[in-house]
Amino acid sequence: MQHNVKxxxxxxxxxxxxxxxxxxxxxxxxxxxxxxGSIKLPFxxxxxxxxxxxxxxxxxxxxxxxxxxxxxxxxxxxxxxxNLLYLVEQLGYVPNSxxxxxxxxxxxxxxxxxxxxxxxxxxxxxxVWLKSVYFTLKKEYEFWTNTNSNRIEDHTTSIQGLQRFSHxxxxxxxxxxxxxxxxxxxxxxxxEDEKLKLANHWLAEAEAGLDFTPRFENRCSDFIPICLxxxxxxxxxxxxxxxxxxxxxxxxxxENIAEVRSDLFNKYLWNEEQGIYLxxxxxxxxxxxxxxxxxxYAMWAGLASPLQAKxxxxxLSLFEYDYGVTxxxxxxHKHIYQWDYPAGWPSTHCYVVKALDKxxxxxxxxxxxxxxxxxxxxxxxxxxxxxxxxxxxxKMLYRTKGKVYEKYNVVNGELYDGExxxxxxMGWSTGVFLYLKNYIDNL
Length: 443
Description:
The chain has a domain at about 170-205. It is built from 14 helices and 13 strands. The chain starts with a helix and ends with a helix. By secondary structure, it is mainly α. A three-stranded antiparallel beta sheet has the order 3-6-7. Helix 4 packs antiparallel against helix 5 (about 125-145).
C-alpha cells in the first residue's frame, strides 16, 4: 500500500486543528460532575470525552505525548501527572481509573516515564519537584515489587525479580465483575467458585490495560508479562537517572537492579526459535502460545540486543497489515477480543514507532506512523461502519463525520467493534495522532 505524505498533509493538518479546537471541551476539574464513588482529583485535566470526569492511568501517558510541545495545552500534561502522583500518595498505587469500577486494581505503570518526559521537555528544570516525585514514584514501584505480607496486591511469581498483574477486589466485587464481562462473553453456566476463579484471572488482565486479550490464555495471573516487566525495567533505569540528576546519596543501586531484571527477562521471555519475546507462563514453565506486538515494549525499554531487535523487526509482518499494526498474531480463539487481531489501537502504534525509532529502524517507524495517521483520517472523513449495534448499551450507535475513534480495524481500514462498539474518543486517540503527526513532520 502506497502512502503519499504530501497529499495527506492537508488532511492531517485539518484533523490536528479540529482536535486542538475540541481539546478544551474535554477539560474537567474538581468541580466537574463525578460518578458516585469516584475519586475527586485536585487538578484540571483533559478527559476522554466532553463531560466525562474520568482519568485512565496508562491512557494519560499517550494523551500527554500529544500536548507536551503545545504551549496552550502543556499545563494539562503537568496537572494530569500531578493527579497521578496524588493518587499514589493517597492510595499507594494508581488505579485503573478514577471511577469506582476501576479502583480495585492498578494499571500497567507509566508514571516514571510521564515524569521524565515532562522534566526533560520543560524550560525550567525544577529539581525540587523532581526530588519530591522521585520518592512518590518509589512508593508506586514498591506497590509492584513488594513481597511482604502488608502488600496491597500480590505481584510475586515463582521467578524472584519478575512480576505479574493482579488485583485486590473483594469476592463481591469479583462476582460483580464477572456479571459485567459475561455480557461480552458466553462463559456458559458456572458455579460461584468457577466464577471467582475466572474473575481472578480476568481482573488481572484488566490491570494489564488489555481488557481483554488472548495473550494470557485466560490465565493472566499465571503469566510474567512482557509489558509490565519492560516498564518496571524502565522505572529502574529512570530512577538511576534521577539519582544522578539530583545528586542523591544512600539510594538503591538502580543500575544493578535493572541489570538483574534484564538478565531474568531475557532468560525467560525471549524465544530464540520464534525470534520474539513472549509472555512467560511460570505455572507451566513455557511461553505463551500467542505471539503479540507487545514484544515491542522490550525494544522500547532497551531490553533487546541489536541482534534480538533485528529478529523482532523481521517478524513485524506477523502484526502489520495494510492499515497498521494489530495486537496479536492471527489465530483462532474461543472468544472475540478487542485486544487481538484485527484491532489496531493508538497506544500500540505509538510504542511500536518508538521502539523501531530507538533501534534505528526509521523507515519502518515512518511507515507505521503514516499508517495510523491514514487510518484515523479515513474514518474521520468517512467512518465505517456508519452504524452498529452496541451490546453494552443495547442500542444502535450512529457515526458522524469529523470524529476520532477509540479503536480501528487494521485489515479493512474501518472501525473495530469487537467486544463493544468503537466510540468517539479523545484522550490517547487524539494524543497519539498529534504525536505521530509531529513525528512525521520532523523527520
